Amino acid sequence: MNWDAISFDWxxxxxxLATAEEGTFSAAAxxxxxxxxxxxxxxxxxxxxxxxxLLERSIKGPKLTDAGEKLLHHVRGMSDAAAMISMAAVGxxxxxxxxxxxxxxxxxxxxxxxxILVPLRxxxxxxxxxxxxxxxxxxxxxxxADIAVRHVRPDQPELIARxxxxxxxxxxxxxxxxxxxxxxxxxxxxxDYSFVGVPDGTDVVATLRDLGIPxxxxxxxxxxxxxxxxxxxxxAGYGLSLLPAALCDPEPELERVLPEIPTPQFxxxxxxxxxxxxxxxxxxxxxxxxxxxxxxxxxI
Length: 300
Fold this sequence. Notes:
Blueprint: H1 10-22, H2 25-32, H3 36-50, E1 55-56, E2 63-64, H4 66-92, E3 98-104, H5 106-111, H6 113-117, H7 120-123, E4 127-133, E5 147-150, E6 159-174, H8 175-181, E7 195-197, H9 202-210, E8 220-223, H10 227-235, E9 241-244, H11 245-248, E10 254-257, E11 265-273, H12 280-297
Parallel strand pairs: 3-4, 3-5, 7-8
Antiparallel strand pairs: 1-2, 5-11, 6-9, 6-10, 6-11
């Protein structure tokens, strides 16, 4: 082994990788929780050590050089190896203390997971849950999270997933909206009601049409990619929306609309990396989430 050939600093490599993936020095600094001048200095030191220019600096931001493009592939391999080392170490840890990062869609992260995790304060007070509200799928392979709550089963062999139940949904509206608009008796009665949904409501429209509700995109008076915002708009009286029963039934200002129609369910998968399953603290959090989410999924 030629040890002299690998004498560069891993922190400098991380700075280069973060800049290449985040797009700017400032974004890389935020991702690595450091300062922009530090990122620039570390990349310059890496370039001096390797004897090549990796990034072209300009007012439009950093751009990879040909040498940087070629090196990036190998750097990502180093990053993957570093993540695996970290996960293997966490997996061997028997200490029931430390942070456990959990990612879930914003409605679950805000309205459901906090109460599910409360018992951990007595059972394992040394564990510090870090809740990340995100409607995108975090990459468990890159340790962006230790545990993910997802609505689809992952297909990566490195991940293990447990189906803990199916989250029931219903049509909800505010009582004030229904007092003003009237309470529909049949699915066809809803044709001229206002709705709240996601920006691309094609799937929702198709689902509701299958239930006999003659909906079009014109029914949607406000949209958002945030479940919390959608729920807030429904409470404010904008109209109806398909929402999780476990989160909306306890809300006194919300009311089910046509509760007898068979609305869809969304599967709940708890996902973690295989290497992390041997970590006692992650196992404890995983099991607590499984128990709480299973109970929520049984909400009628």
